[in-house]
Amino acid sequence: MKAAVYYGPGDIRVEEVPRPRVGPGEVLVEMRACGLCGSDLMDWYLRDRAPLVLGHEPTGVVVEVGPGVEGFSVGDKVFAHHHVACLTCHYCRHGDYTLCERFRETHLDPGGFAEFFRVPRENLLIDTLRIPEDISFEEATLIEPTACCLKGLRKAGLRPGDSIAIIGAGPTGLILLQLARALGAGGIFVTDLVEYRLRAAEDLGATLALNPSEEDPVRAVRSETEGRGADVVMVTAPNLRALETGLDLCRRGGTVCVFAPTPPDAYLRLSPHRVFFSEITLVGSYSTSHLETREALELIRRRRIEAEKLISHRFPLEEVDKAFYLASRDKNCLKVVITRGG
User: Fold this and answer.
1) Which of 26, 142, 207, 320 has the fewest beta carbons closer than 10 A?
2) Alpha-carbon distance values, 16 to 53, 122, 234, 237 (Å)
């Protein structure tokens, strides 16, 4: 079968690889669509694991069922989460499923950017979902990123009526915007350097969509919040400048959520004096769990998340290199999806 293998920066090749064999409790899925995530473009995050098959937002059709599988049949339309927790360890008992040791050890085989992928027993039992007929395969690729955003907003403690600043209007930022609106947020302020994405934010209901190279976002947000700043700040851009801006946008007593990783050698200068006297909370939110994926699916089904509006480009698996080039070099795009006809 064909799979897109990542070897390094700018080097992703469609190659012939062995088709996975299913074992007891497993299923084989024919990929129909798989979203390209921002983390798929972070070479520092990938280089020590290369070569590997990326793609962790896949949907498809079950084409083979292993012995002992219950609840799934050939022909089922599914989404499969690439990581699942053990549900019994210290972290899981505290609800910190993404910190579970098994969470990072579980993977789809070989990955979503392949003609077929195997869903291991644990993933099938804990976080593989049937996709309703009224949701397309492409729309369902937004389940995982929507679930990540739900988890992030909960960790940040967003409440009805709160103001929220979202730094970065890529797909994640625009999902956060829609969720904030659905959760009853007050002012929703979005910043980005790309006008194309700012217009998308306006179309989806942002109170303000600002380009920080043209307008001071701190002054603009404070003018909209009686001088306070935002109650919650979600930083989706993976750089220190964005984090610094996020801290400046946050009101006293507010929360800043680090929603995208920086390289491990990047450090932020932080004033404990300011954190103490302003009582700012700084939280991180990595990935998502089986709890949020189910909610995400329902939000997409009810059109509270307008998934179709977020998909700007589609590429067949054979042109995955073009998809990566577009997503990394041309920011006039939103969600890029890799597809395969069935």
Assistant:
1) 207
2) 12, 27, 40, 35
Asked if the 152-284 domain carries CATH number 3.30.420.10, the reply is no
Q: Is the four-CA dihedral 145, 64, 62, 1 of positive or negative sign?
A: positive
Chain position carrying tokens 């009853």: 184
| 152-284 matches 2-142+305-339 in CATH topology | no
Distance CA 56, CA 211 (A): 31
Closest CA to 166 of 247, 236, 65, 64: 236
- For 3-36, write each residue's pLDDT tens digit: 999 999 889 999 999 999 999 999 999 999 999 9
The whole-angstrom separation of Cα 256 and Cα 237 is: 13
- The one-letter amino acid at 113: F
Fold for domain 2-142+305-339? Quinone Oxidoreductase; Chain A, domain 1 (3.90.180)
Per cent of the chain over pLDDT 90 is: 96
143-156 helix and 171-182 helix, angle to the nearest 10 degrees: 60
Whole-prediction pTM:
0.97
pLDDT the model gives residue 137: 98
